[in-house]
Amino acid sequence: MKVELAILFLVPIxxxxxxxxxxxxxxxxxxxxxxxxxxVDGSFSPxxxxxxxxxxxxxxxxxxxxxxxxxxxxxxxxHKRFLKHYTDYATFGETLNKQRYNCLTATALYALxxxxxxxxxxxxxxxxxxxxxxxxDQGMILIETTDPAYGFVSDAKEIERRINQYxxxxxxxxxxxxxxxxxxxxxxxxxxxxxxxxxLHYNLSILAFNQQKLPLSIDELTKATELYQSPRIEExxxxxxxxxxxxxxxxxxxxxxxxxxxxxxxxxxxxxASANQR
Length: 278
Fold this sequence. Notes:
By secondary structure, the chain is an alpha+beta fold. The protein has 10 helices and 9 strands.
């Protein structure tokens, strides 16, 4: 029986053998992060395309009397322009260049737009999902980036219901024919723009693991752990470790993989121990 392990943001894993505050000008800051996120998967950053879109939003801003209405306009227009084809394995570059997205890449894009327009917000990470909470003069808004029809939520009771649902850390839309991996912890963390880059590398590590490209998976996980310390990285590193131990490969190759994975795990343990001592 094939076992499918869902680790982050509904990206399945297939089983086998501090912010930069010195960027003051909004356009320069957005340009910086657009390039940074695009570099994760080595794609071309269409900065002029995004900045042109942002300029059009800026020109429309004065026609909205309420912050909430402008935010909803950003939500709908961004979906129309960049978020047309949902796919579990989308990268940030594919979201900007090919309009393919998942909840992580879409959330990254929305977070940059909210940051650009000075809209106070939180990026919230759970076990299998990520979403946005934004502050407006009319109250809190929840943005569910994978739902173009009902993902802009302004009703306080509905926001509370959705957050409670997310806090359950259960998989959505499970397929009964598959067996899923479940975390041994519960996440509900606020993530920064810089830490999103670590999660983008993390998803690439999962994709490489699915494709049975262990060296690439380990490379991407190493980059992820340098940018973001998370229980999910430690747990995924354990999955890779077990796969290497049980895999059929040359002894020297196996030892090389084990050394790299243990280095990742040691870094995670050191960070966790330091955090616990504070």
